[in-house]
Design goal:
single chain, about 35% strand, globular
């Protein structure tokens, strides 16, 4: 019997220009402001994100600062305007994007479920698109695969195989060695200001945060998993972690942990007095009092 897969979507030009997608998660607020929980242990930072907060099928676009908090009633670093609610506006008009949907159109079964008139949300990402097309192709090639448990077991085996083929994570000792190897290319006192930047995926980091992104990519690999944490705990710090802090001027600064001792850490950082600096130490108490968030690749 004939089976078809229809993809329906309407997207603004900004999605194409900035490579942004819509996400499903939850808005959260604390004493500092609003931030968005993606629902998978991550949150947006230093980036734009389309969000359908009220689940009406229409997404608005929001900019999130390096700290992860939503910008509001201001001009973003890349020159766009956001209103008091944080939504991107043009000439006072909130810009929107219609949510993507996938329609499985068939009178047979997919993964043990009847798929006629079934609608799945699609976030517009290339990864999600590839997954949907892959699943559809598998269904199209094997119409006899109607048992849901069998299908899920097949996918679990594939995922386990992919995980086994992935590189083993490096140890903290290896991470420290790789950081120290960078000192010849980025020596003490080398100029590094906000004019220096580093591109990591969709994120552009300038100055200190750009150097932090650079170090982590060099040490752990550009495709390594990144996880942020907001609660400070000395026992959970790792060599190579990127720590975002408030500095003495009231602004923010990024550092990389080079070594960990009983009650302090040793750091390497960019844009410290406009240069690369190795070996500054900071006590756990000082770090905790200025802590914004941490980012680990372990």
């Amino acid at each position: 019997m004939k089976k078809t897969l229809k993809i329906l979507a309407a997207a603004g030009l900004m999605t194409i220009a900035m490579g942004m997608t819509a996400f499903a998660g939850q808005w959260k607020q604390d004493a500092t402001g609003w931030w968005y929980d993606n629902g998978n242990g991550t949150w947006p930072a230093s980036t734009w994100q389309w969000i359908d907060g009220n689940q009406d099928g229409i997404s608005e676009c929001y900019y999130f600062e390096p700290s992860g908090y939503m910008a509001a009633n201001t001009i973003t670093p890349d020159g766009y305007t956001v209103d008091a609610n944080g939504a991107w506006t043009v000439n006072g008009v909130v810009q929107t994007q219609v949510s993507f949907v996938i329609i499985w159109d068939s009178d047979e079964y997919f993964a043990g479920e009847e798929v006629s008139s079934t609608v799945d949300e699609y976030d517009g990402s290339e990864e999600e698109y590839d997954r949907i097309i892959r699943d559809w192709d598998e269904y199209d090639e094997d119409e006899d695969l109607a048992d849901e448990e069998e299908f899920e077991e097949k996918e679990e085996v594939e995922e386990e195989t992919e995980e086994e083929e992935a590189d083993e994570p490096i140890s903290e000792e290896e991470a420290q060695e790789r950081i120290l190897e960078m000192e010849s290319d980025y020596p003490e006192g080398m100029d590094w200001t906000n004019d220096n930047y580093y591109q990591r995926g969709n994120y552009t980091g300038r100055g200190c945060i750009g150097f932090a992104y650079l170090v982590q990519d060099e040490v752990f690999g550009k495709d390594s998993k990144s996880e942020k944490y907001r609660d400070f705990d000395p026992d959970h710090l790792h060599i190579g972690d990127h720590i975002r802090l408030y500095n003495d001027e009231g602004s923010q600064h990024s550092v990389i942990i080079l070594d960990i001792f009983d009650d302090e850490v040793e750091l390497v950082e960019g844009n410290y007095n406009s240069s690369i600096h190795w070996g500054r130490t900071m006590s756990f108490d000082e770090m905790e009092s200025n802590f914004i968030y941490g980012e680990t690749r372990y």
